[in-house]
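Students often ask why we bother predicting the structure of a whole assembly rather than each chain alone. The short answer is interfaces. A chain on its own may look different once its partners are present, and contacts between molecules only exist in the joint model. In this exercise we take two input lines together and write out one structure for the complete complex. Read the inputs first and try to guess which parts will touch.
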Amino acid sequence: MSRILSYVIGAVVSAVLHVGVIVALWANWQPSSETVYLQPKYVVAELVQLAPRAPGVSKEKKTSVTSDQLARKKKRQLEERERKRRADKRRDDAEKAALAKRKKRQDEERAALEKRQLEERQRVEREQQQAEWEDMLAQEEAQMDAQEDQRAANSYRQIIQQRLSENWSRPPSARRNMEAQVRIQLVPTGRVVGVSIIKSSGDAAFDRSVEQAVRKAHQFIELQAMDSRLFELKFRSVDVAFSPEDLRL
Amino acid sequence: MSEENLSILSLILNASVLVQAVMAILFLASAISWVMIIQRGMYLSAAQRDFRQFEETFWSGIDLNSLYREISEQQEENVAPTGIENIFRAGFGEFNRLVRLEKPDPDAVIESTDRAMRIALSREEESLGTHLPFLASVASVSPYIGLFGTVWGIMNSFRGLAMVQQATLATVAPGISEALIATAMGLFAAIPAVIAYNRYAALAERMNTSYETFADEFSSILYRQFHAR
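Now the answer. The structure tokens for the assembled complex follow.
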């Protein structure tokens, strides 16, 4: 009798306990904690353009410029011819006048000469202007090329930077304001042929880790796509600065 | 990941079937073990109390025959005799029966009384120890069951991780959290069971020793009584 009673009491207490736990869970009881979920916010910079810009584009521009130029030149020549013809006519008139009025001839002749001289001077000036214009054009083109190079170089730099930072394991002794600069010697296949530290961070482990990172990167295979002019210009040897916050080229 | 999706209950409900089964087993084990814990606790404390009371009346110099009668009357009124009363009744009843015989052999009487009491004692020992093996197995096994659920859950969550491209902490965290609930439940079931088992086993052992001591003492009293005649 009392044994059964004790079982019943046990069952009731146990049921109450467990139902209580379930209810607590249901009511989403949790030890008061503010859960803050920190998710890494990645800004993934993707390389949109790897190859130096297709030469077709810039060429097109060039041809359009030249055709423009040609038209202008032609126009100018025409004008000049016209002017010349007019001048000739005037000269003829002057001669006629000289014939007619010998008295005034010398004056007239002088005037014509002056005029011719003036014209000549004008023409020279104009030619100079045109030369200047052409120079400017050439300069602009060179600048555009340089920009192009710069852009391509930047994209390659980015690749190198990314690869190096992937391979770099920062030593525990790294501090925020440390910086080590290395010079990487590359060959056109993208292979690293030499690493030398040109500015030590002052921490041997840090320097070693930097060197290790470059050695681990081993080859930047993407550099094979680069044209050799740019490579010789900028990527034969690359200086990279490593600092714990980021990795700068 | 919103807060709502990470409440423990929703994690349980979203867990895989095997993990849920593990959790259900553990929950059931916990519920049953609590029934046992409470029942045992009540039974053992009652036995302890009764033993103390009985000893008090026994050593107060009461007439053993009237004590025996009282207990027998109680039993007729359908009040269950306590452990110590059972032993006393078995021994004293046997003794009375044998003494009433003509020319009882003292050795045989004492031996027979002892035997009767030993039988009652072993019965009491049995009833003191009931359910304790269950508590012991819940205590020792449920952490393993929980661990199994956790390992399974984490295994699945890592398998899922292998299939995604960009693995962040947020992709594995819910799975692991869900899996860890199984371990938590295992511990939830095991800890009370361990404590209860240790406590009750010690208590049962002590009660047993007390009963045995009483049986010996009682036997020696009967022996004296028999020879004093």
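Check your guess against this: The mean pLDDT of chain B is 86.
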